[in-house]
Specification:
heterotrimer, A mainly alpha, B alpha/beta, C mainly alpha, A: mainly alpha, ABC transporter involved in vitamin B12 uptake, BtuC, two-stranded antiparallel sheet, 2 strands, 2% strand, globular, B: alpha/beta, Rossmann fold, six-stranded mixed sheet, four-stranded antiparallel sheet, 10 helices
């Protein structure tokens, strides 16, 4: 039972990280109708920035703050230089163009930081384990991830539901032409939204960095699950992304933790050991396929699309 | 009256709180040109959509040649002889006019799992397609890409495509919308020639055209048929005058676009 | 522009025909060059180009002509390759068995995926095809008997009686012939009744249904044909590299195929070949010049996406042949 709770918490934590990525993706998808394969690159950049700044400043927190600002700026610059020229084109041009960006960023990181990868070490107070229910010691940093990302999600919620900018974002996600007709500075709104998405991705990257190593290609591996979240949730829906992210995070983690034992009950040890990793890696894609076959527009289809 | 080709029986469709079709019953006899008129938002396009199968009715029946087609999918209805022209021209813009019509012919020339012969060189597709273009007066524009056709020509092409499927019933959804007077006149002439050989349900705002062409007219207001009869009877009907013809000029001047669930 | 059009309609020597004929000639002469210049690597590189061109061509059939943007086409490549690799490992070396199995297995995969995916549209279709490809990727990673993540070396190329695929020249010309045959096949399909239905469904699917076509089954069959053809490319690729691994199905490989098709110019018969050649030669050429080839290749793709409509073929002007 304790093991289950621990794995469940791990699932929540993965889900929250996926949400940070998916929230930006779904907004960019919903508002600018852009398929952005380079979103994972911003996640990677966030991690590299954080590792670098933390080393300079000797402070994890300061490094993290600087990294978020840096990815925000990087995202807005990227939008102004390249991304905005892809709006209104078909999805294939998006795939081609942002695929090019993905290649570019991987190579750029290799040029600047070298091929070896980096580590981002935590301050000592986050290295301890906390006892949550009696008997379960859970790494403090993982709890920090859950709490901080939840706070960010809440902030995002307030931003989207309670502010004027948020109102425009919501309007844009469900009806793009409408916002243009209202006389809003669309160009600026798009740049801001892209920058916001980039900052969220960078933040996800730096939060994940101490757990995994910071390396080239880290963005590609997380990008596809993030897309899965967006699609399951329904393109353009932040609420959908939140629900789907938790679903995907928990199912993926629980699957990896318990599928081997479960299979072992019915199959030989050998077969179970072979099958379990493949099956648990597949679980989220099966989930997505099932959701799309049943609801071709995702769980929470944005109104008006 | 001749035997009914199409029978609509208590057809009902609700969109939220709006009754788009309120127990509509209507019968079209073979060979007649039946006009459906009514103000914008009366539910004309919704009715056409239910006849072609794009919209599923909440209740009621549609019988075509004494066969219940209420649950038949769109492409099957087309195969048994129900053809429609779209209110907003809906064409294959990458293709030429002739290609468009030839596709319509092909749809009714057996299955298309034929992978080898060049379809653009098959006389059994091209000849009937040229015929259909001739009937609507577009023969000279056969090899012009759709993108280069004028608005009126596209409407004519729409009708040519519907004709090419050799329909028994032709549903025309505002074929004259947005046309200039000259183009309209030409289209009225085309329809006059088609009349008799084909059963036609015509939805149209152009009253001159309707009264010139129709054998019978039905008036749809708020999803309900308030009157049905020959042109003279409709002209004289008090309810129609009050509900609709009185504001005829207003209706004719305003925009022709009608939302499907308006 | 209209001059080009006339040119293309009436004269045999339009730029497109000259370029395509030149391309075929150059490809036919690669082994000759390799023999004279003593450059066996050219053979390896160009064999790969031919094989990827077949894969990109199959993708282009569904994507360029059918409007079905599959982001999981590399799965078909992988299934074809794994069919060859698994059979070889199990002691069945005959190409007469291996290749049909590769083609049929890919076709069956395409049938299942198509049947489930073709009800979705747009981005959802892109993503669900990707999801299925990811599943295949993870299945392959889990096949411990066949190398799991690390992949599997194939010790003997497919055996075709007296024909020895280890002969680089023979293998090259086999790929060349299969590519030309595939281009011809796709050209016939695209211009047939079936092909017009597929293109009509890309252009305006609701209208196709209204005019009386059950579009779903045509699109599904098209998806299966493309899967089968890509399975053939996968069988060739496994023989070419003597190696299979899940990496050949990674989602970025599916991305590569899309890039090749778009780069060369969809709707054009030789587009996928041009795209595959441009992409792989650029990759190769740039890595000679710099240690960081993607620093140039990446922005180049972006520029093509932004400024070049209709890919490289589009630069040749004139109408594109359907």
């Amino acid at each position: 039972m304790l093991y289950f709770i621990e794995q469940f918490l791990n699932g929540i934590q993965l889900g929250m990280l996926l949400f940070l990525l998916a929230a930006g993706l779904t907004l960019i998808f919903g508002i600018m109708d852009l398929v952005n394969l380079a979103h994972g690159s911003l996640y990677m950049l966030g991690a590299y920035f954080a590792a670098t700044f933390a080393a300079w400043t000797n402070s994890f927190v300061l490094g993290a703050v600087l990294a978020v600002v840096a990815t925000l700026v990087a995202g807005m610059v990227l939008e102004v230089i390249a991304i905005r020229r892809l709006y209104g084109r078909n999805h294939l041009d998006h795939v081609l163009g942002t695929f090019g960006l993905l290649l570019f960023f991987n190579e750029l990181v290799r040029l600047v930081w070298g091929p070896a990868g980096m580590t981002l070490s935590l301050p000592s107070e986050m290295l301890t384990a906390v006892q949550i229910p009696p008997g379960l010691y859970y790494p403090a940093y993982r709890l920090v991830i859950i709490v901080v990302t939840l706070a960010v999600a809440l902030l995002l919620y307030v931003l989207v539901m309670r502010t004027r900018l948020g109102m425009l974002i919501r309007a844009g996600a469900s009806n793009r032409e409408m916002v243009g007709a209202l006389g809003v500075n669309i160009k600026l709104l798009y740049t801001l939204v892209f920058g916001l998405g980039a900052a969220l991705a960078g933040f996800a990257g730096l939060m994940q960095a101490p757990i995994l190593t910071v390396q080239i290609g880290m963005g590609e591996n997380i990008l596809i699950p993030a897309f899965v979240v967006v699609v399951i949730g329904g393109i353009g829906s932040i609420r959908g992304a939140f629900v789907a992210a938790l679903l995907v995070g928990v199912i993926d983690t629980i699957g990896r933790a318990f599928l081997p034992d479960l299979l072992h009950r019915y199959l030989s040890e050998n077969a179970a050991a072979t099958l379990a990793p493949a099956l648990s890696s597949m679980s989220i894609y099966v989930l997505m396929a099932v959701v799309l076959v049943a609801r071709p527009e995702g769980l929470f289809p944005a109104a008006g699309r | 009256m001749a035997e009914a080709l199409l029978e609509i029986d208590a057809l009902t469709k609700r969109f939220g709180g709006v009754m788009a079709s309120d127990a509509i019953s209507l019968a079209l006899s073979r060979g007649e040109l039946h006009a459906l008129i009514g103000p914008n938002g009366a539910g004309k396009t919704t009715l056409i959509g239910q006849l072609t199968g794009e919209i599923a009715p909440d209740s009621g029946r549609i019988r075509f040649e004494a066969r219940d087609v209420t649950a038949l999918p769109v492409y099957r209805r087309s195969q048994i002889g129900l053809a429609r022209s779209f209110q907003i021209a809906s064409l294959f813009v990458e293709f030429t006019a002739l290609d468009n019509v030839a596709l319509a012919v092909q749809a009714h020339a057996g299955h298309s799992f034929r992978f080898w012969r060049a379809a653009r060189c098959e006389p059994e597709l091209r000849a009937p397609a040229r015929d259909a273009l001739l009937r609507v007066g577009l023969a000279a524009r056969a090899d012009v890409p759709v993108t280069a056709l004028s608005h009126g020509e596209r409407r004519q092409l729409e009708i040519a495509m519907a004709l090419a499927t050799r329909p028994r019933l032709l549903l025309l959804d505002e074929p004259m919308a947005g046309m200039g007077p000259e183009e309209s006149a030409r289209l009225v002439e085309t329809l006059r020639q088609l009349k008799g050989g084909l059963t036609i349900l015509l939805v149209e705002h152009d009253m001159d055209a309707v009264f010139a062409l129709a054998d019978r007219i039905s008036v749809l207001v708020y999803g309900r048929i308030i009157a049905s009869g020959d042109p003279a009877a409709i002209r004289a009907d008090a309810a129609v005058r009050e509900a609709y013809l009185g504001e005829q000029d207003g209706v004719r001047r305003e925009g022709r676009h009608e939302a499907p669930h308006g | 522009m209209s001059e080009w059009r006339k040119d293309w309609r009436h004269g045999p020597w339009s730029p497109r025909i000259v370029v395509n004929a030149g391309l075929v000639t150059v490809l036919a002469l690669v082994p000759v060059y390799a023999a004279f210049a003593g450059d066996p690597f050219a053979m390896t590189l160009f064999s790969r180009i031919l094989i990827m061109a077949i894969a990109a061509l199959s993708l282009n059939l569904i994507m360029g002509f059918g409007g079905m943007v599959s982001f999981g086409h590399a799965a078909c490549l992988g299934i074809g390759g794994y069919a060859v690799g698994i059979l070889a490992k199990e002691g069945i070396g005959s190409g007469f068995v291996q290749w049909p199995v590769a083609v049929v297995a890919s076709a069956i995969y395409a049938l299942v995926v198509g049947a489930l995916c073709l009800r979705t549209r747009g981005v959802y279709f892109i993503m669900i095809t990707l999801a299925f490809a990811q599943m295949v990727y993870y299945v392959a990673s889990g096949l411990d008997r066949y190398g799991g993540d690390d992949g599997l070396t194939i010790y003997h190329r497919s055996q075709f009686g007296p024909f020895d695929l280890n002969n680089a020249t023979l293998f090259y010309y086999l790929c060349f012939a299969l590519l030309l045959a595939s281009i011809y096949l796709v050209w016939r399909i695209v211009n047939s009744r079936f092909g017009l239905v597929i293109q009509g469904a890309r252009s305006n699917e609701p209208r196709m249904r209204a005019v009386g076509f059950p579009t779903f089954r045509y699109r599904l069959v098209c998806f299966v044909i493309a899967g089968a053809l890509c399975g053939l490319a996968g069988a060739l690729l496994a023989n070419h590299t003597n190696f299979i691994s899940p990496a050949m199905m990674h989602w970025t490989r599916s991305g590569d195929l899309i890039v090749m098709a778009v780069l060369g110019g969809m709707h054009a018969m030789f587009g996928p070949l041009i795209g595959a050649m441009a992409f792989l030669l650029l990759e190769q050429g740039l890595s000679h010049v710099t240690d960081y080839p993607d620093l140039i290749l990446g922005p180049l793709l972006l520029i093509v996406a932004i400024y070049v409509n209709g890919g490289i073929d589009g630069l040749l002007g004139g109408p594109r042949r359907g």
